[in-house]
What does this fold into?
Amino acid sequence: MTEATRHTPGTPCWVSLMVHGLDATQEFYNALFGWEFVPGPQQLGPYVRALLDGREVAGIGQLPPDRHLPVAWTTYLASDDADETAESIRCCGGTVAVGPLDAGEAGRLVICSDPAGAVFGVWQAGLHTGTTTAGRPGTPVWNELLTYETSTVGKFYRTVFGYDIEPSVSDEPDSLTLRRQGRPVAAVHGLGGGLPRDRGAHWMTYFEVADTDAAAALVSELGGRVLRPPGDGAAGRLAEVADPEGAVFTIVHSTGG
It folds into this structure.
């Protein structure tokens, strides 16, 4: 897929990051991915959209000075009705932290967490449909949920978003694939006690790169950290890294990419 229109409900459609230093964060991702930035909706404070060749790929906002929240990439799942989805999240044991609220004419959003505490967003598209380019270096290419066990949260996401769920063919014993309309859209991995204690259950965003080893080295040069060095996996060559404010993400040179 190279261009996106309105996303099927339940599919990851956008990733967004809230940070303390907006200018410094833009410099980091510009140098790493080649992103350029334009202003976005300001309802929740200063916010910019990241572009590649004029096409939107992600968003970055600035936290209020008095908000000492963990800095992390947030995966947004598409919805045709954010209010209805928020109510379903509550009824299924999740928590709604922000919204539903309008982001100007761009759309309507919810920030919430699943029963295990993993934070994610819900996006009902208005003028802004979400990420509009994919599959090239600098774009989000995959999303995974890392949680304690898959049974409970799998039922939660299936009920709220209507996923078809199937066990993943992998070396991990507790692993699921979430599908919409027959297409895999995300994965869920139950890690039990292997989850990082400082993060708990969380969604992970994968960004495509042309060269994983070179990109990991660049992360370090730019003031970030390499948490898991480059290695080969089923999806390609990947590394887990963190930006200078500590937001963790995975860089991957996809198989066949």
Q: What stands out?
A: The first helix runs from residue 22 to 33.
